[in-house]
Design goal:
Layout: H1 7-25, H2 31-41, H3 44-66, H4 72-95, H5 102-118, H6 124-129, H7 134-151, H8 155-164, H9 169-193, H10 199-207, H11 209-222, H12 228-248
Amino acid sequence: MIPEFTTAQWVLGAACALLVGFSKTGVAGIGIVIIPIMAEVFDPRESTAAMLLMLIVGDVFAVAWYRRHAVWRTLLALLPWVMPGILLGWYALGRLDEKQFKPALGALILVLAVLQILKGRSGEWVAKKLPHAWWFIAFVGLAAGFATMLGNAAGGIMSMFLLAKGLRKQEFMGTSAWFYFIVNLVKVPFSANLNLVNPHTLSFAGLMIPAIAAGALVGVRILPILPQKVFDGIVVAIAILASVRLIVQWP
């Protein structure tokens, strides 16, 4: 069933699809720009499912390209904590007002971004010990699972965590590719249970596959020419933007 959208909505949807592909293979975290645009195409709650399906398509391209660069010890330490977070987010999505907890998520991302900026000046604890502490990994995992189920909003949290672990850009992209592919697949039945994955969102995502592929191809061309420091700086800047959007409730 093809959604009945205006021309402007189709253009916005295609632009989001291009950005999804680019974010999965080029500059991670740019999804913060996509979320408010998708809310102009779909109902805000339904837009989370439409975006989830597009993200899964992008994940396929990212895993295909960067699968060999994943740091599995980081993934395996984090994933067990993410799953309970997804359950909490599923419960919240059906019952609570997002305005009650989005500022807290934004504050968390901002704290992680500040720690990343100060890492080189703040001594061994922040630079070397904190990213490997079990309680820090558990906290980040729960928060990421909660945020990604709530509104595909875990990008800032995960970006700061992976940078804190000291991953190089290819390792960053490979690890995040597998993380999001696994987590986004897990989220599908929960979104379906809330009737957010439906014929409209499925058909829309299917029609957007060519645009997602085009964005992914651009991303794989851009990443190799980005210096590591520039890549890190862009990721931190996008994470700070994400935190501000959540704190001030920018739609």
